[in-house]
Amino acid sequence: MNTLKDKVILISGGTAGIGQACAQAYVKAGALVAFIGLDQESVLATGALLGTPHLGICGDVSLEGDIEAAVDQTIATFGRLDAIHNNAGLASPSKPLHETTEEEWGRLFDVNVKSILLTTKYGFPHLKATKGCILNTSSLVGEIGQENHAAYAATKGAVNALTKSMAIDYAALGIRVNSVMPAAVMTPMLQQWALEQAQPQQVFDFLKDIHPLGYCPEGDVIADVCTFLLSESARFMTGVNLPVSGGAELGYRRNC
Prior knowledge:
Number of strands: 7
Structural class: alpha/beta
Distance between the termini: 40 Å
Strand order of the largest sheet: 3-2-1-4-5-6-7
Oligomer: single chain
CATH superfamily: NAD(P)-binding Rossmann-like Domain
CATH class: Alpha Beta
């Protein structure tokens, strides 16, 4: 179904993992997609995957000039902007707070949080014109925390708070703002995090077992929900931090 037919969507972190799965889903739903990736090789590979007329942009989401240029390129190419999906994110390092360096802390917040400031700053006039929407990729850890991952969890808690505040600020303009909160999704970023742990295989087993539905999903599971949130089917939803977690937040359970 073409639930996003002719909608212009700018997605950051669109060249791997959840972002690439979302870009593919948006194209399948009829959207015109501009996607930002950090390196030219991944941008070209994803561009080949999506085909024409979609737009690949190489840039660092923590740099204001790169975001301004990405929005300008999107408008120059497609003439409008209907949605921004802030998906780019870092999950490393995996440490308790007292072991986290100031540089690591700053980089996490620059990529995971400041990037939302920048895309909103430059995308806002165009979203106001189309009564568009903003979608943020958050994480369940922003609600429940995570062992040895304090700085990352803090960034996602900030994303959740931003989502609600932005939704209030922009509701009168017809701009909806929501987030998705996965638990674990088997992406290259999550695999890297798991391999940083003392016993990686136990971590991979854990990532499966935390989901009561019984498996650790891939990015398509998140992409389907994101497609819904950007569509008219979700037209009366805003300020929602939506778990897409296989029930991971439900608490006590027994694995037999």
